[in-house]
Amino acid sequence: MTSTSESWRVVCQDPGDGSGDVIVELPSELLQQLGWGLGDELTVEAEEKNICLKLKQRAEGPSS
Questions:
Q1: CB-based contact 41:53 (threshold 8 Å)
Q2: pLDDT in tens, 7-56
Q3: DSSP label at 56?
Q4: How far apart are CA 22 and CA 36, in angstroms?
């Protein structure tokens, strides 16, 4: 299986609440490509000069 890596550059925004947190808006094109959506939980891994976001395992909801 071949894996390709694609980079996206986004701007971190200060929420202005003094928490030291940042807001990162991910482009809708990226979210669509990855199949990510509102409410998905991500893990954050700091690398040398990059931050890597990965989708946490989704919990299966009750079947209808």
A1: no
A2: 788 888 999 999 999 898 889 999 999 999 888 898 988 888 888 888 99
A3: P
A4: 20
Burial class (CB in 10 A: 0-12, 13-18, 19+), 13: exposed
- Calpha distance 55→42 (Å, rounded): 4
| Cβ contacts of 15 within 8 Å, gap of 6 or more | 21, 22, 23
The predicted structure's pLDDT at residue 17? 97
Q: Look up the pTM and report it.
A: 0.61
Query: Residue 54: what are its φ and ψ, rounded to 5°?
Result: -135, 145
Backbone angles phi, psi at 15, to 5 degrees: -70, -10
- The two tokens of residue 32 are 């669509």
